[in-house]
Amino acid sequence: MTLATAQPLCAGTFTKSAIAPELGLDALTREVARAQVGRDLFANPYATVTIGHTDIYDRFPYLESRQFQVVSDPRWNRLIVGERGHGLSAFDGRGGATGALREPRGLAVDENDRVYVADTGNDRIVVLQASTELDAMTLSPLYEIRGLSRPFDVAVSDGGTPFRAGDDVLYVTDTGRNRLVAYALEAGAPRLVATLGDLGSGQDRFAGPMAITVGRANSGNTGDVYVADAHNRRLVHLRHEGSSLRWVGEAPVGADVVTSLETDQWGNLYASAPNQGVVRKFNAELSAVAELRDGLSRPRAFHVPFSTVRDHRDGRVERVGEPTAISIDEWASGAGLRMWSLGVELNDLRVDGEGAPVAHFALTDHANVSFEIADAATGRMLVRRNAGAMEAGVHTLALTPEDLQAAGGNGQFVLRMSAASGYSGGATANAQTPLQLDGAASLLPMRASLLGSAPNPAAPVTRIAFLLPANGREHVSLRIFDAQGRRVRGFDRGFVAGLNQIAWDGTDEGGRPVRAGVYLYQLQVGGEKFTQRLVLVR
């Protein structure tokens, strides 16, 4: 078996898309605004959220979908609101119950169309109720949260249960005090439940926390909280547990200032760094997976919309992440607001292994992965297998003895891999690499390795694959832990040299179903430990 460099066939993590195709507009810029409405719309657009609704019927019109934008402008002390491609209006709070806005920056929206505004200059959070009728949207003040010092950003969590009241939480970067604040959003009034931070550079300390977002797994939020810590040039991963925010880890962000953090349907993060002119994408473990530079000009925000989808045929209601994003750049002649289509790339494909062949590759987004082995001379497909759903990041996939036997054992082949975007109707990324198999391909591996789980997310059954070396005498165990590190399930017998695949059905040692959420699985072979993450959904 020989090593070779992959030849990527297609890619598309970020693809430009028209912001108002019915008007023929690729982007909303200062030049476009002056041409269309005769004036500037913004002085300094900073953040945006989307209020989206899709209704499905069993008769005409069958499908109705509307998306409204709210954009903050801290220089002109107002919000701009309206439906894409239609009329816009301004909200500055004057004359309302909560008074005038002053330097509004970060925004968040929940499943009930409540908009949370970091009103930085007034040292508060303002909560507004959005109401839509046809192509118009209005904002009505509900209440304010005081006792803060120059809050720059907000994030709201549905507690993992969209449309169920009682467990929603609001997170605020209390930037002036270098701390984070969490409020339970209860019916009467928000209740302070947790704080973390003080000025510093170590664990549990911040120096200019400017952006915040919450984790996500499919249709609901997780207990994960992510913070951009400006002067420490890092992203911080926290876990909200009861009345405390637990420090999980950190990663360098490669920027002096991050003004926006966002998560998509799969829990990937997007960090906007205006001074570096880049939006960097990370997976939920804070491993960098992609970046966007082309087409940006000092990006302040990168927003992934979520819509409420209501199926009137069966009464089902869910929150669905859109396969699109909106970037906010500096307001200039050729820069402003732009739309992007989100997709996946399959990179760095190679095959190696001291005996059993293993494919290594990287994904830039959640995708359904499959592969085939073809004859190099004729192109005839010999083996095809579905490897299941995989998250953004680096992956390994072992070719099984059955794969090699079906391919014919020895000779020149091509390994082709496909990654179909997890978004409905999304494109498929492809890559291929030459593969030479000889007698060594049937040998057992020389060392242990944890290959991953598929499908991931598990719903609820998944198979965890790993390789064990020949003549290994070390004790082998596979353990599953919850996000707090508590053991949930263990496997320690029936393993063989070579490829092992252990099915976990989402139950604990007593056979009881465990809750949906993030879990860790750990393979221990003697003194070596290998750990990976999976998401369980129900």
From TrEMBL:
The alphabetized UniProt keywords are: Repeat
In Pfam terms, one family for this protein is NHL
Q: Is the keyword Repeat assigned to this protein? A: yes
Which Gene Ontology BP terms does the record give? Answer: proteasome-mediated ubiquitin-dependent protein catabolic process; protein polyubiquitination
Q: Which residues form the FlgD/Vpr Ig-like domain?
A: 474-523
Renumbered ranges of NHL repeats = 88-131
GO MF entries: ubiquitin protein ligase activity
Q: Which PANTHER family match?
A: E3 UBIQUITIN-PROTEIN LIGASE NHLRC1-RELATED (PTHR24104), SMP-30_GLUCONOLACTONASE_LRE-LIKE REGION DOMAIN-CONTAINING PROTEIN (PTHR24104:SF51)
Q: State the name under which the record lists this protein.
A: T9SS type A sorting domain-containing protein
Q: Which organism is it from?
A: Eiseniibacteriota bacterium
